[in-house]
Amino acid sequence: MLQATINGIVLGGAYALVAIGFVVLFNNTKFFNFAHGDFLTMGAFLGYSFVVSLKLAWPLAIVLIVVAMTVMGLLTELLTRQVVSRRALLIGAIATLGLGLVIRAVIQMTYGPVDLYLPPLVDRPAVRVFGAALSYQQLIIVGFVLVVLLVLYWIYQHTFVGLVLKATAEDPTAAQIMGVPTALVVRGSFVGSAVLAGVAGFLVAPSFSVSLLLGYLIVFKAVVGSFVGGFGSLVGAVVGAVIVGVAEVNAAYLVDADYRNIAVYGLLILLFIVRPTGLFGTKLVEKV
Amino acid sequence: MAETTLTAEPGTAPRDPRRSLVATAIHRPETPPVVVGLLLLLLVGLVSGDGRWLGTTALLLALAVGTVGLNFAQGAAGIFTLGTAAFLGVGGYSTAILTTRYEWSPLLAALAGAALAAVVASVFALLTLRVSEIYLAIATLALVQIFGGMILAYDGLTGGVDGIPAVPAPALFGFAADELLELAILNVVVMTVLAVGAAVVLAAKPGRSFRAVREDHLAAAGCGVRVNRTFNLSFVLAAVYGSIAGSLFAHTIAFVDPTAFNLDISVIAIAMLVIGGSGSVVGAILGTVLLQVAAEVVTEFKGFSNLLFGLVILFGALVSPRGVVGGAHDLVDRVQVLSRFFRRPARVAVARTPRQRDAVARDPGQSLNGAGPVGVLEATDVWKAFGGVKALQGVDVRVEPGQIHALIGPNGSGKSTLINMLSGLYRVDRGDIRLGGRSIGGLRTADRTTTGLARTYQNGRLFKELSVFENVQVPGDHRRPTPGAVGSRWPGVTGRAWAELVIDFVGITHLESTKARLLGFGNQRRVELARAIALDPWFLLLDEPAAGLSGMEQEALVEKLRALSGLGMGILLVEHSMNVVMDVADTVTVLDFGKVIGCGAPAAIRADRKVIDAYLGVS
């Protein structure tokens, strides 16, 4: 039970990375990026190439993934600029679904149709905490999540950039009139979310397998987490993602692996019924 | 009724009633799907010699039913749903399980599946449709995942990952469609019948309600549309169509397994709808044909097939966001707007149109002044706070039938808030709202329209993608009292004639087929007014109807307001233009900081010291 909860928290931490990118992008663009999961998959496959094929050190691999995902984020922004500026949610969703298909097809053409295995980054025995085992991979994930959260917290609470981000999310038109370079904010959001997804993919890949549907698997849970927490809230996204991780692992541990998905998604629907805005969400009042 | 009216084209001729049979047929909603159905039948005939393409065609026909269904929820009502896969799955598995394990007849099995889908969708809609659009997308995603999880968890019944093979051919009254060609023909027939049904529903009252809630659900509620019920209906229709599509799918490939009903199919259905043309039945079918054929063509490029398919979806959405059919419509709109530049310049003339004379003749002339059947609209001691802001602090207003009651005051004094409380958008914190002695404070917006209230909005909330005529038809559908009932001022005028009458009254008959978003500002305001009048209300709440209008347009508006009050309507008029207020108002109430600081006849108000200090100023 304790072991399952700790595993769940780590898994939730990985979900949180993905959820944050998704939410930041949505807040600043009202854009639902359905290719987000495929960015994650891409990170995992690139990581495999760098670490297994090219035998690079894993910190270097992360740097290269950040570079690659930056390019990917910029490219996506360029492709969907028209759609984003018109706030055409549905069109954006469809276009990115198409983009996701393209990414998966390219991956499949490059790596072939078989699932790959990425070994843990550090090959050392697990650390024992209160009788539960924590692998180095899990420690790296937790460490990375904490760093990202602290940096984001600092940016949002203590820097001018954070103010600009909040202003753009609140009202892009007003922000633009006040001199905020909203185009830059949008571009930055695309890059940031792609980078977070790619790195998250690389970090969680050893716990799963490097497969085409890795992204799907994780992004849906991450998105569910962000909704559990209250969509749009970053704190909510992190808390919600961890709740989902814990619930998922415990459902598999206590009941049956078959009920994993039913538990997670059932939880979400239950939450919508009880509290439609999520734990940290605020109710929107429409002005007439 | 109106003695004079401002029209752009004097004496606008009514539509020619003797339109040719062909022209009438073209405009019927069932014609396009029938034509498409016949073309697809032709396609089946053309490919009947080729097993592979015949199979593709049969399959796309099954899927088209699902896309047509998705169009109810997503295209018409604007619900972003990823739930298609779950409902396809309910149909597919119902058919597979009931026909193979329990030997039910295919028809009964399909109907059972559709019924189950309807139940699941109703419950789901009741529980979750009150969440906003993006939450709903995720809730429907969860539905698909739970469905997939259950298929695996109950593998004794569903066969788990192995699926259920050997689903028998569909048979009806002893005739079995066991040849692929027969199957394809059956699918064409079922698809066409269901598409015609969809087109008819979408062209009628339910379809208008769907589109109204999609465009602006607050304004729709103000037009009497029950918003939740409308969303739910569109969702249930989508589920039933999806389930039938799933049954056809199971028969067509004679096999079901979980991978057929995963999220990909939901996504592809959305892509089909968007690429074909969201909102249109023909668009839904066309999109299914295009994408399914594209998918089949690209399989020839082994290895590249997904890449090409992805590129088709990506650039299809980016290049033509409104789809094939939407693009065609936009072209027509553009030509329409352009052609106006080449028309003879419209003369602004004072004229009475023939149809308006009819209206005057139909008006029984019973003035409801004073002793009207409904009594008065009154707000007593109404309080409302938003957080720390006390917007209204014990306001009393009393609107008499047949009277124009102006509500004036500085910005932020609570005028719009009061209208929002009267119309049911906000609940009162304290106090009561009564209409004819009956308390209506607890009723929701749509239910208040039934008691005889209608309103306009300060910033205009037209259904932008709907034509002027449809904008007026939506409230006309929810008109009160029921046409023909005692108390109706126009007992004989119903349906289209009612919408025509109201549009004519505000003087924009020549624009009735134009989309609201293409209208100029003044004409948009006229549509707002027409939409409120089309509810045939006892009381009309107007939020700054003259703002932004030219002097001549204001004069025309004043005429209309007089005419309406002459018919016994009570009007509450929020207005900043003192010319208009002093011109038409019988009574004026002045608000300042959420309190009434003056109430009385216009002349008395103009002389009131407190009102001059707070609002009017000295000239």
- What's the number of extended β-strand segments of chain B? 16
Give the N-to-C terminal Cα separation of chain B.
37 Å
Report the sheet-strand fraction of chain A. Answer: under 5%
CA radius of gyration of chain A: 19 Å
* Largest sheet geometry of chain B: 6 strands, mixed
Strands of the largest sheet of chain B, in order across it? Answer: 12-13-14-9-15-16
Structural class of chain A: mainly alpha
Oligomer state of the chains in this structure: heterodimer
The share of residues in helices of chain A is over 70%
- Rounded to the nearest angstrom, the radius of gyration of chain B is 28 Å
Question: Strand count, sense and closure of the main sheet of chain A?
Answer: 2 strands, antiparallel
Low-confidence stretches of chain A: none
Helical amount of chain B: 55-70%
Query: How would you describe the shape of chain A?
Result: globular
Shape of chain B: elongated
Put the structure in a nutshell.
The complex is a heterodimer of chains A (288) and B (619). Helices cover 74% and strands 2% of the residues of chain A.
